[in-house]
Amino acid sequence: MSKVLGKKGEKKGRNPGGQNSSRLPPALSIPQVFITSEDDSTPPPIHKEGFPMNMMPQSQGYTKDDDAASTAPLLDSGATTPLCEEPTVPYADMGTFLASSQKLKSEISSEEICLSSFDADKDLETCSKESEGENQLNLPDYPFVKWPWKYIRVISTLTAVLAIVACFSSSATLIAHLPRRCDPSTEWWQGKLFYEIFPASFNDADGDGIGDLRGITMKLDYLQKQLHVDALRLSSICEANNYPEHYLDIVNASKVDPHLGDVNELRVLLTDLEKRNMSLILDIPVDRIPGVIGNSKVADKQHLLVENVLRFWLLQGVHGFYLKGLDTFVHQPDLWTCVAQWKTLVDSFSSRFSKRRVLVVSSDFIHQYSLQHPLLIRNLLNQVDLLDHNLNLERPARLEEQIRDGLIWDSDVDKPWIMWNVGTVGKSRLANSLEESNGCVFPLGVLMLALCLPGSASVLYGDELGLLSTTNSSISELESTSVMQWDSHCVDSSLESFGKLSEIRKDALPLHINAILKYDNDVVESRSHNYAFKMLPNNTVVIERFYPRRHRYLLILNLGIRNVTHDLSKTYFGGFALVSSTGRKHGYVKLHELNLSPGEGLLLLLDK
């Protein structure tokens, strides 16, 4: 049953002026509020202050109903007439009003509030029906309202946190794996240090007076940790008559000479080299292979003999070959095709291993072939990875020319790299080249020259210790095959300086790289050498090495037999001393009055 807070009067009110009721204006629509209750049928008392329209002041969002206010004086002011002094209608705060009504509903035991506007002629029964639920205010029942939002919030938070952690972890991993330096990539033989060994004179492991392969294996720590060598080059180890005196008188090019050991010991040596990330190159005297020796041309039969020898040693795991004796066949125009087929065989083994297999030839052979077959020299160069170029220091005045003669073959990207050597088997040792000099100073100074030129470098065993040429009791024909003197007096001075120099060279890009390349869309746009050479009076050599965005290095070497003093301050102010062959110069060195003793070399890190 409905309870009425304000209801329509059943009788027409009289106005104070006693005017006729027939002059009253038509009935207006006045907002009414009905509250229904299923458990209470007693009408509530009617109070003016209980009327919902007067609960909120006008200043809080209600608008004044001027029509209702104009008719209020015409209504009967009896007890049954609603008191409407200033009727107002909710406007802006309708949501607040509805929320208050909902609260009121819960307080009066599920009473229903119906806010409706009806005409004055509409009877009470119509409004009662509406209040009973026909026009109740119902919010839409959206599906997402019933979702488990508590769990959704937890899952979303955890997902966001995990995503942030994953981003930070990925960033940290990428940063950790970024290269510390952005240097141009090089192969294992490019810009590296090679160490040439005559096995019979290096180290004797079994005490028979002749060095062997096991003796080389025992000295790998010395070669790696003290000299920082990257690869070994072994003179011929093939079985020969009366080895080692006549080591080139080969009887079986596919067998290790018994004086040196056997194939198993060679495999052990190769295994230990691989563990140290070092490599091994074998000298193969092509013109001394049985079946080839004595021939003036490499025909099909001789070509197959050489190919079989190369295949045998490749199967053992060697990393490349120095093809010697090709000068014998330099007159043969199609010799480059034979070398190309050998190169194809070598490349076929490169795919089986992590390191590529390489071919090395002498620059003297390349020079002679170019003179006789100038149109074919490019084809030959494309089959070679390294060119061994010897510097003759008996004529230091021609040193600049010798360097240019070597670099002329390294004038393009696809050309072989140069391997500089200042001492090799068959030539006089460095320590004997300048008799009046200190035997420890001069060899080290010259080795500094080889290690500071563009490309790779090769060092003959013992030169780092100032080993002198002596008559070997078993190898009388080769003075450079002196037995290694492990207790040399230069061990403390030269060895430490040489090891420091080779270590610096590994990390110093300007010292070991052979050129500066400029790219345009991954295509080489230009190529230029990264060195400057100058010969000063009294056979003093100055070599500057540089590379974009890197420190510059300066080598100053006295190849003369007298003390010299030079003023280089017009070009170079000074630099930090990295290596001194005498060990007497340290710290920052000014170049306005630089004094050098005979054979002394000085490597400086220049000011930026």
UniProtKB/TrEMBL annotation:
Biased amino acid composition, Basic residues: 1-11
A Pfam match: Alpha-amylase
UniProt KW Transcription keyword: no
Span list, region Disordered: 1-53
Residues passing through the membrane, by range: 154-176
InterPro entries (alphabetical): GH, GH13_cat_dom
Name the UniProt record assigns to this protein: Glycosyl hydrolase family 13 catalytic domain-containing protein
Residue span, Glycosyl hydrolase family 13 catalytic domain: 196-505
UniProt keyword terms in alphabetical order: Membrane, Transmembrane, Transmembrane helix
One of the protein's GO biological processes: carbohydrate metabolic process
Originating species: Daphnia sinensis
